[in-house]
Amino acid sequence: MAFQSELEVFRKFLKNQGMRYTPEREAIIKEIFSIHDHFDVDGLYISMRRKGLRVSKASIYRLIPLLIEANLIAEVFFDKGQTYYEHIYGHEHHCHLRCKECNKIEEFSDPRLKDLEKELSERFGYKILTHKLQVIGICSKCQAKEDSA
Amino acid sequence: MAFQSELEVFRKFLKNQGMRYTPEREAIIKEIFSIHDHFDVDGLYISMRRKGLRVSKASIYRLIPLLIEANLIAEVFFDKGQTYYEHIYGHEHHCHLRCKECNKIEEFSDPRLKDLEKELSERFGYKILTHKLQVIGICSKCQAKEDSA
DNA sequence: AAAGAAATTGTAACTCAGTATCAATAAGCC
DNA sequence: GGCTTATTGATACTGAGTTACAATTTCTTT
Ligand SMILES: [Zn+2]
Ligand SMILES: [Zn+2]
Ligand SMILES: [Zn+2]
Ligand SMILES: [Zn+2]
User: Fold this and answer.
1) How many Cβ atoms sit within 10 Å of the Cβ of residue A36?
2) Could you read off the pLDDT of A123-134 as tens digits, one per residue?
């Protein structure tokens, strides 16, 4: 099957669920898929307002679980009261290495995690859906800062 | 060096920081280290009240970051507005396999994660502190429920 | 052991992400 | 177009976690 845009995928998802496609949902999704980075609700709302796109925060909060359900985005991590998301549709699954000091993030993927998933599935009888690996460390810049301090 | 109790470790930590050892802190720590499972602030508070141990929630909230700083406990995961913690002092590092439906948790550890940490450290120049791997799936009981539904 | 400086406590007020309510509006189907 | 029903935005609410502050307690110094 040909590659479908996020919007196409989502329209089909909505139809399947007897839900409606609205201009507000379209605006939010377009905004989300124009950001090629991790994002949070507040940042999204602010950048939409700046562009004169007026949707309520409630609509954003209401849309996010649908986009997750439709496998278009996923929660990445929760930090200091903020939940961050990222695109997953059309992206390779990857994990995150985060600097504890400056929150800089590196992405990586590793085939061993798939093997591990398989072994866990056999060992515990779970059907594995996904995994989230967060590696926490200190980036080279922050290490330098610490040494000189 | 001989094994030190959590209390001993924490008393030393407090002294180092110019902080004080109080009966409230002692009561909370004793309660935390009597629970051999993942715990959250609310559950801790309720079980202390049941035993007639009267400390305020604010004191619990104030103590937890100190216990984390002292490497006695760590945040495990955040789910539905609740933050869960577990002991780490004197425990092997492990990861979690969680059922998306019933939240049942299995613990496991895998030496490949240490290798991965080392490789990431070299590749990105980070000093690695720790990792948190959460595998999400459906446990066998919940699979059975889904099939019969 | 008493005094004094400084940290800690509990209470209550507050913050802020996320949710629920509801009347007005709009999408989708005939 | 007209009808049914989902969605919207405004607003009120919830609940975890934080903060301010006066009263209390720890710990050090003598
Ligand atoms: Zn850094
Ligand atoms: Zn990412
Ligand atoms: Zn289950
Ligand atoms: Zn655990």
Assistant:
1) 9
2) 999 999 999 999
Q: Name the β-bridge partners of B97.
A: B106, B135
Q: Which of residues 74-133 of A touch B (CB under 8 A)?
A: 78, 97, 99-100, 106, 108, 110, 112, 116-117, 120-121, 123-133
pLDDT tens column, A77-112: 888 888 999 999 999 999 999 998 888 999 999 999
Which ligand has the shortest distance to the CA of A84?
2
Name the residue among A32, A47, A38 with its Cα closest to residue A82: A38
Q: What is the DSSP letter of A132?
A: E
Angle at which helix A23-34 crosses helix A41-50, to 10 degrees, equals 100
CB B102 within 8 A of CB B142: yes
Give the start-to-end residue ranges of the domains of chain B: 6-87, 95-148
Distance B95 CA to ligand 4 centre (A): 6
Model pLDDT for residues A6-56, shown as the tens digit of each residue: 999 999 999 999 999 999 999 999 999 999 999 999 999 999 999 999 999
What fold is seen in the domain A95-148? Dna Ligase; domain 1 (3.30.1490)
Q: Measured between alpha carbons, how far is B50 from B78 in angstroms, rounded to an integer?
A: 25
Report whether B49 contacts B60 (CB < 8 A): no
d(CA A55, CA A34): 17
* Residues B139 and B101 sit within 8 Å (Cβ to Cβ): yes
Q: What is the mean pLDDT of chain A?
A: 94
What is the sign of the dihedral through the CA atoms of B19, B58, A75 and A57? negative
Q: Which of A99, A103, A110 is nearest to A140 (CA)?
A: A99
CA distance B108 to B51: 33
pLDDT of residue A86: 97
What is the fold of A6-87? Arc Repressor Mutant, subunit A (1.10.10)
Q: Are A99 and A80 in contact (CB under 8 A)?
A: no
